[in-house]
Design brief:
The protein has 187 residues and is α+β, with helices and mostly antiparallel strands. It has helices at 18-27, 43-46, 56-60, 95-101, 132-185; strands at residues 36-40, 52-53, 68-73, 79-85, 90-91, 109-116, 119-125. α1 packs across α5. Residues 37-128 form the TF-B3 domain.
Amino acid sequence: MCIGRKGQTDNSVDISSSAQLRAEIFQTTLPSEFPHFLKCMLPSHVTGGFCLSFPKRFCVSPLPKYDANVVLVDEDGDEFSTKYLIGKNGLSGGWRGFSIAHNLVENDVLVFQLIESCKFKVHILRENCLSQIDVVVVLMNLIVESHNEDQNKKMNMCEANEDKYLEPHEERKLSLSCMKERKMNGD
């Protein structure tokens, strides 16, 4: 969920935005051994102050208990050095450069995946256009839908095959009972 100032949901941010939904789906594909979190871009993240806070629960465990350099790796493998401030629970110095270099705008959603100590892979899902991640998410959905359709077709084929086998079986029963009846009648 994108949270606005003072911990309240910001009404100007659509928490069911396309980018948010796609990011949530994408996040489920990440390996569980690498901690990760979503961050919806607000104006303070991409203009003016250029501060980016991390979820407090995330700062408690995998990040250092002191100010440190944190490397952000984008989808092309380019690295950006930033300053993690323990007192702010987030990034300050260097974040502005990353944000500008990637043309981040309000409502873009970033998935931060900790790949090494103080090193994050950053996946960007844009609100207003599709990225490579979006293509992967769409393909995953198509595969799942196709798999479900195939299963339904198989079930329908099984049902159809069952019906086909039932009819001759029923006809045989009827034929046998007719033959028995004829024998009894002496035909």
